[in-house]
Amino acid sequence: MTTAAASSPRTYQVRTYGCQMNVHDSERIAGLLEQAGYLRAGDADDAPDVVVFNTCAVRENADNRLYGNLGQLRPSKDRHPGMQIAVGGCLAQKDRSEIVRRAPWVDVVFGTHNIGSLPVLLERARHNAAAEVEILESLDVFPSTLPTRRESTYAGWVSISVGCNNTCTFCIVPALRGKERDRRPGDVLSEVRALVDEGVLEVTLLGQNVNSYGIEFGDRYAFGKLLRACGDIDGLERVRFTSPHPKDFTDDVIAAMAETPNVCHSLHMPLQSGSDDVLRAMRRSYRSERYLGIIEKVRAAMPDAAITTDIIVGFPGETEADFERTLDVVRAARFSSAFTFQYSKRPGTPAATMADQLPKPVVQERYERLVACVEEITWAENRRLVGETVEVLVAVGEGRKDERTGRLSGRARDGRLVHFDAGSLAGQIRPGDIVHTTVTYAAPHHLNADGEPLAHRRTPAGDAAEAGRRPRTAGVSLGLPTVGAPPSPVPPAASSACAC
Q1: What is the spatial distance between Cα 415 and Cα 192, in angstroms, rounded to a whole number?
Q2: DSSP β-bridge partners for residue 438
Q3: Which terminus has fewer CB within 10 Å in the chain: N or C?
Q4: How much is the pLDDT for 264?
């Protein structure tokens, strides 16, 4: 190896699976590696020096997917002996040293509680020429204290809590993410301000159970207060949050959503099942009447609210009557979208050992009926918007057919996906800009707007996208809980001139 090659920075690639939490964790992994001197590998680089898998353990095929991808990567590593492979996330927290046993070419395994250890573990594995497995049982450093390389110039994730105190029988997440830990509201607001100072227009507040925020410091109204405080941040145009739990949904949160102008009238609230018997077996501490009551209150306060959900089909013991009750709730709720899942066993969860596991053909048939019901409703709800004017935050990668159709894509304030024609503004509209346009066509999962845009506003986020900058935020520490700005706000992180 030449001296020049030996001194060149090592490159990295992060491959992400799973939920928004994992997506945001991957931004932290990237921030940590770049702080340690690594450079992000180009899209065409098939042999980066470090490949990090940030894994999910929620679905049954998660294990097969990981080990399949690790197997596909092995020949590349054999051809490049200096390459390192690291596995983190929920599956790593669950499988631990089993990963190295099944894939001995893996160099590092780290868990959900020690993301910050990754650069040290990589260096240690290189030095010792042996795999490093480090899994902690509880959080050592709150993730938001870590440096973050943001993927978007216009929208940012902001964690307000990690972990979950619920005991849903189908879910393995609490065992892998730990008990809920809440950040100080002032620190959350500092991070939001830092993002806005870099041009970000939209933030999504993240928590495994986002609206139980405040339980750690004894304020059951803390989440509503946080939403209202976000409304006081100049330059912040959109606030979203995910995912709330129906059992913790309070009227003050609905009021905060309705009365705070930059909080979007969109709500993602998992239903899981419309059958009270199944909800009881799932240990979901609400019933269908309570769920529909929340929706009724939300729509009374915000008639334009778009409500989305998660639904599981085929939970152990689910009868045809139980499934019909789920369809009844779907029809009553009039969701604008739904993420539908076939129940899958997760070892270590109570549901995995329950009697009356349903045959796959039964689950599949019910799943297909559920999808058809959901699409009929979402299509009808979307058709109501034809002829309406929508405000679209222009996005990257939302429209897979955009290049072929000549359209751009983005999200309306209510979260719906909109594909629009730039018309005479073609070439002038950038990701992160705001466009007002009229809906001309509706499909079950998106809207089209094929007329001339009514208005186009250039934004700082669009400027950053045009310049190839990505926001980078320094860590914000965990402190004592208070609502309001901290005494010394974290200054905006320096922008990078590197293109993604």
Answers
A1: 20
A2: 389
A3: N
A4: 98
Predicted local distance difference test score (pLDDT) of residue 46: 74
What integer pLDDT is reported at residue 457 of this predicted model?
Answer: 98
Rounded CA-CA distance 294/301 in Å is 11
Helices and strands per DSSP (H, E), number in the chain: 16, 23
Task: Give the pairing type, strands 238-242 and 202-206.
Answer: parallel
Contacts of 130 (CB under 8 A, 6+ apart): none
Helix axes 20-35 and 118-128, enclosed angle (nearest 10): 60
Rounded to an integer, the average pLDDT of 405-431 is 95
Distance of CA 165 to the CA centre of its chain: 19
Distance CA 358, CA 313 (A): 10
Q: Residue 144 to residues 109, 264, 275, 477, 490: CA-CA distances in angstroms?
A: 21, 24, 38, 7, 13
Look up residue 142 and give its amino acid: F
Q: At what angle do helices 222-230 and 251-259 cross, to 10 degrees?
A: 0
pLDDT at 147: 78
Decide if 419 contacts 435 (C-beta within 8 A): no
Q: Are 257 and 244 in contact (CB under 8 A)?
A: no
Give the model's confidence band at 475: pLDDT under 50 very low, under 70 low, under 90 confident, else very high: low
pLDDT at 5: 47
State how far the Cα of 281 lies from the Cα of 315, in Å rounded to an integer.
9
Q: Which residue has the tokens 């001309």?
A: 440
Q: Is the dihedral of CA 316, 322, 327, 329 positive or negative?
A: negative
Closest residue by Cα to residue 422 from 403, 440, 435: 435
Measuring CA to CA, which residue among 470, 461, 500, 489 is closest to residue 192?
489
User: Do residues 169 and 282 make contact, with C-beta atoms less than 8 angstroms apart?
Assistant: yes
Q: How far is CA 210 from the centre of its chain?
A: 12
pLDDT of residue 188: 94
pLDDT at 364: 97
Residue 3 has pLDDT above 70, yes or no: no
